[in-house]
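Field log, afternoon session.

UNIT: design team B
ACTIVITY: writing a sequence onto a fixed backbone
BACKBONE:
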């Protein structure tokens, strides 16, 4: 049986665009794979404690035989989180833009995984595994707009997923998600709706690309 690992990081549930697009995407992948299980981790509802990261990280500077019980527990918890990605056939990460970066919850999850030797820079544990990054942004950041270059979240998480962990990454981005509720963005609402439709369409057709990747000769 195939398995999909899905991580959500939106701090809202109702009205969350990243969750909605990830729903479409996971449904599409599951339908294509047949009998897939979904392992869901919601780091907004159930955050990885930030001191889990710091304890596990500092253990890396101490010989293992000298680890404290807290360091042992932290490394075991980090390994359990890492197992979820190692064990999956497909990875889906939903990452809204918050304050021009990723959520602290997503950052802590990534930092904690990197304390696991299998996810340290230079390792190839999940190299080539199909993965999707679902990005949502309230505003617009396209070339020529006043805030072009201000999205520091997507660049960072892409660097981790595609370059550090070497996942085979596709990105589905939806901008202008605040247009519907922001009077100053009223003139952008048609564009926002069009982008949202396109994102769901991309998500719907992505299942096929996963099966092609999984069946491709290594
Ligand atoms: C605390 C907070 C900070 C945000 N910061 C930004 C930001 O810096 N830039 C932006 O374009 N949108 C920002 N937004 C808007 C979100 O990116 C947007 O609502 C997105 O759709 C959130 O994902 P979701 O729909 O899955 O909840 C912010 C939203 C919140 C709640």
């Amino acid at each position: 049986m195939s398995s999909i690992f899905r991580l959500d990081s939106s701090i809202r549930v109702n009205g969350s665009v990243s969750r909605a697009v990830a729903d479409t995407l996971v449904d599409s992948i599951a339908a294509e794979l047949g009998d897939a299980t979904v392992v869901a981790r919601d780091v907004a509802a159930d955050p990885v404690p930030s001191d889990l990261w710091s304890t596990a990280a500092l253990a890396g500077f101490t010989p293992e035989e000298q680890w404290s019980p807290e360091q042992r527990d932290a490394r075991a918890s980090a390994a359990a989180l890492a197992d979820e990605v190692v064990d999956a056939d497909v990875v889906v990460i939903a990452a809204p833009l918050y304050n021009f970066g990723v959520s602290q919850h997503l950052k802590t999850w990534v930092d904690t995984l990197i304390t696991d030797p299998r996810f340290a820079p230079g390792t190839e544990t999940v190299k080539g595994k199909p993965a999707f990054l679902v990005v949502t942004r309230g505003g617009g950041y396209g070339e020529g707009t006043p805030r072009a270059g201000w999205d520091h979240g997507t660049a960072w998480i892409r660097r981790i997923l595609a370059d550090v962990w070497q996942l085979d990454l596709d990105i589905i981005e939806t901008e202008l998600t605040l247009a519907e509720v922001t009077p100053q963005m009223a003139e952008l609402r048609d564009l926002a709706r069009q982008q949202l439709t396109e994102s769901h369409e991309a998500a719907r057709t992505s299942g096929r690309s996963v099966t092609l990747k999984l069946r491709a000769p290594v």
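LOG NOTE: The CA atoms of residues 14 and 217 lie 41 Å apart.
NEXT ACTIVITY: expression trials, pending approval
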